[in-house]
Amino acid sequence: MIRALTGFSTRSPWKVIALWAVLGLAAAVLGQAFVFRAIQTGSGGFLPAHYDSAAALKIAEERFGADPDANPLTVLVARSDEAPLTAADEQRIDAQAAQLSRQRVVMPRTEDTMPLAQDHSQVPRVSPAMTAPDRSFRLLSVELSGNPADPGVQDTYRAFRDSVRDALAEEGLRTGFTGGIADRVDSTDAEKTRSAIVGGAMLLVIVLLHVFVFRSALAALLPLLAVTVIGGAAAGVVVGAALLTGTGLAESTPSLISVVLMGIGIDYFLFLLFRFREQLRKYPEQSGREAAALVAGRVGTAITSAALTIVAAFATLGVASFGQFRVLGPAIALSVLVMLLGSLTLMPALLAVTGRRMFWPSRSLEREPRAGSAARMGDRVARRPVALVLASLALLGTLAAGVMGIRIDYGQGGGGGGGERTAAVTTAAEISRALPAGVSDPTSVFVTASDGAVLTPERLGGLSGALARVGGVGRVADTVLTEDRRAARIDLFLTADPQRQEARDLVTGPLRATVTAHTPAGTEAHVGGTAAVFADIATAVDKDLRVVFPVAAALIALILIALLRSLLAPVILLAAVGLGFAATLGASTLVFQHALDRPGVDFTLPLVLFLFVVALGTDYNILMSDRIREEMARPGPARAAVGRAVRHTAPAIATAGLVLAASFGSLAVTPAPSTQQIGFATALGIILSAFVLSIVLVPALATVLGRSLWWPVRPRRSGADADDTEQQGTPERVLVG
User: Fold this and answer.
1) Beta strands 523-528 and 601-602: pairing type?
2) Neighbours of 421 (CB within 10 A)
3) Start-to-end CA span in the chain (Å)
4) Tens-place pLDDT, residues 412-453
């Protein structure tokens, strides 16, 4: 089937290119236009219903009318002359708040607004909250609805912010904005220039690296163009599937899809390009279309094997209890299948159309290249495999030892420190000097009557009093009752930032224990809010990772056994990838937890490393193993076969690894601590996967084991000419007796 697909693509390349140009670009445009309609905002909605904070969120929505799409926002209002607020000032502020709550905010339309973008014009909820004890400022509570990642919602917030600032400035008052969308927009604006510079620099590095390797502008630009088209189409397919099935995507899903597809897409195109160039050098009389058909059919098998392994790895997330993981896995698996389809159709079609012009103006096709570093590495692996195995294991084992004592940090800020000193951060600091840190984001206790009796402040007085005595609770607000008095909300303002570990420890420990001990008879109580949600997410993620990793390893092992038709080779590949994963996580722990004294590694890091390092590392190993098996099918000793495999395959793996490491490494210069960790760890993991595992450790082990690596099925050592084997495709295999 693979050869039939690649064969059609190379026989009718213009039809395939036209089809991708029309359908692919249409899917990409529609996906970009509707992506934010498919995203589920907030993290609490992804928790299973039996978690305490999920139950609290349900009560908030059903009994108190909380909008799951609401973006809470705190506005600080103070006198411009820094004098304490007077009663008249408070009246003017409240009057302005009442006016703002009736005023419609129109979403600005800019040249960057998508044609089918949703209109987020709205009337915000604005209400007075409280005045600081020293009367230095008064706070307004605001709600804007919509996905905070949507540029249209962000533009709507900017319009609201500017109108509030101008209106209150006329009254001699200054304003500050913090919380939720204010933090996001300020960070986005602060990082806009940096992101553009870093993104442009990384794109330039990728292009220059391709130019350096292939000496051709077309070979440098065409892979990026093809991967962009296929990746956009894949994202559109995922968005369309989510809308049709009513599945809410996590906010991070589109960006993760983009990074995954860019990584594996460039990998697959590079694998094809290197083999295409090798084929054209070997057979000068062969046409570009014939060479493309042979190469695509041969490499397509390895690409399919690698892609299906990645699909299996991501699909295992479907067994997770945390909804964000459960949705993420199938979404990325579907997008990888689209990239696989593009790799077997669009990419071969482009090779067939361009032929030898792909490498113009380079003259490298006219001569056999001199033995370079890849050939020297192949010879070294063939001569001293045991020494290289021991050196690789020593390096990886030393780094993996850093996992001992690892701490997982569930802070949204990535574990402290750093970050841009934005206006929102400055406003939050000003508020925390006069009021508890959690005043802008309260932790709420929801109480419902289960005995049919109504609730009253007196009935809940014991609970409120007990909560006020909990260390870390700075203030307890008055009890808010529903109209039927069957549900109540008690807001707590914690002294710790709700997004920090201290707040989560307070919620999971003393706070929930107090609620359990002092909930009145005939009622049920649940703790909600940011700190409670992330405390429960920490529990869910911890449980899921213990399930997902073994299930993924088992499934990948079964797929590798079926694809490689060997029992020993899959064990070696999985062990190598697992050691690379441990080494990367250990190195990240040493750098961030110990050297930089962070509270721990970000809770998303193990999963991100699993998605990128394990999946892409398996990709590289499959490519190398496939070439080793092909070379071992030819006459001669196994050592020489491994040397040839390294010589021909190492350049593709090294180039792909450098491109991906540079892309991920750019994230390490961002101000967000969690993103820094992801950038550093993934770049290091890909470097280890490419240069240590795939180019050194796996070939060295193959040299030591020889053709027994493929036990119980291994390539026959045939006397046939090697060129015939190349032309005929997969060699014959025999059972080992």
Assistant:
1) unpaired
2) 11
3) 31
4) 543 334 455 789 889 988 998 888 877 878 899 999 998 888
**Distance, CA of 499 to CA of 306 (rounded, Å):** 39
Of 411-425, 468-482, 556-570, minimum mean pLDDT range: 411-425
Residue 175 backbone dihedrals phi, psi, to 5 degrees: -130, 155
**pLDDT-derived band of residue 589, with 50, 70 and 90 as boundaries?**
very high
DSSP string covering 598-661, please? -SSEETTHHHHHIIIIIHHHHHHHHHHHHHHHHHHTSSS-HHHHHHHHHHHHHHHHHHHHHHHH
CA dihedral 81, 85, 87, 90 (to 10 degrees): 90
Phi, psi of 333 (to 5 degrees): -60, -45
Please state whether beta strands 443-449 and 408-409 pair in parallel, antiparallel, or not at all (unpaired): unpaired
Nearest CA among 488, 535, 545, 540 for reference residue 510: 535
Q: Is 196 helix (H, G, I), strand (E, B) or coil?
A: helix
Amino acid, res. 211: V
**Cα 271 to the center of its chain, rounded Å:** 24
Classify residue 355 by its DSSP letter: G
Q: Percent of the chain scored above 70 by pLDDT?
A: 93
CA distance 612 to 255: 13
From CA 705, how far away is CA 569, in angstroms rounded? Answer: 10
Per the document, the length of the chain is: 737
Task: Specify whether the CB–CB gap between 710 and 570 falls below 8 A.
Answer: no
Confidence band for 730, pLDDT divided at 50, 70 and 90? very low
Q: Look at residues 373, 318, 299 and name the one whose alpha carbon lies nearest to residue 622.
A: 299
User: Within its chain, how far is the Cα of 149 from the centroid?
Assistant: 15
SS3 call for 733: strand
Burial of 452 (0-12, 13-18, 19+ CB in 10 A): exposed
- How is residue 362 written in tokens? 């380079």
Please give the full DSSP string across 277-303, using - where no structure is assigned: HHHHHH-TTS-HHHHHHHHHHHHHHHH
